[in-house]
What does this fold into?
Amino acid sequence: MLMLLMVCCMAAAGQVRFRTAELQRLAEIVGKDSANQHRYVIHQTDSIVDHVGIRLFPDEMKRVAKAAVLPFLERYFLQLRHPSLGRTPAQMMRDDGFRFERGDMQTIEQLRDSDAFSYNFELRRYRASWSRNGKELLAVSFPKQYELLAGVNKIEAEELLEGDIRTSPKTTPTTSPSPSEGGELSSLNIPAMHSPPSEGSGEVIPSEGSGEVTGFLILPGVPYIDKRINSDLYVEKRDSTYRLIVDVRHPAESAANMLLSRFAPGDYTLCVDQTCYGYKRKKYEVQLRQWLSFCMESGCDVYCGIEEVTEKEVKASVFVVNQAEGYNHVLYVEVPLTTIDNQKGPVHARLDCYIPMHNVAGLFAKEKKKRNKEPKIYEK
It folds into this structure.
């Protein structure tokens, strides 16, 4: 509680940084309610306040769940008590598509720590509820929409993205143990959706121009939009050890590995040309591995479709999908063959961020048309 009071006082004096102006507004409101500080929560990450709300859930529960729904409900209920822009709570809920299906704002005051909480989502909406002794006390529903869940508008989301990427770890790659030693490529951090390679799994493809079946194994992932847009990874066996391929002799497979896994060998710079609201563009550079760490920490799945392999580069589309928060990041990527050959260098990407799930298929088709071709994806 002492920390809460301190942050609120610093907020009022303009001495602490906030992720958004709305969080600062809420913190100032909380600071004035000195008699009820125990009923609120303020959270900081790296000296930046990134959450303010009514305390509904234990901190440990939010940390373990890693779900945007929990902090959203804490913040949104506080916002309903103190709407901005002169709106009433009813106007705010109507604008946001938020509904009380059982109970109302008064019911929130009756909730206990021991009440059972659950939530689920179907299609485009979440439903969250509290119950006691098997009887539902409070239930709300709301859209599965990133801007609503995160408490930001489109412009704020775009502006915050670069900083969010830069706070992600720059993971150091490791090699995998041999399957004969019980290894399942766990040190490569292969997502759970992939099957671990073994002598009898995956598809073995001989290397071109060689009579030896040295080739590589395909770790089958899952498709997205089109079967050729997927999360497949490609590994080769060297000295009884499986490694992700980055080899200019296999440019398509190498590019896919680089764009999907933090543990692909090499060190690459992602040169981002980000499309922003109002036809503006923002350019910056981050480590490719850091970008992938950000995607994983955000709860996203990453998929890659190789479009074309030329004499100079590999062209690909990358889809970063967050089902829980209802958005995609889409990157149109060019990987120079020199970057693959050197296992070091630039990877160029045009980025459209925080695209609602239902808009992605249309954007994909539009982009292919813009590139003056029928939609096609390179067959690896």
User: Anything to note?
Assistant: The radius of gyration is 24 Å.
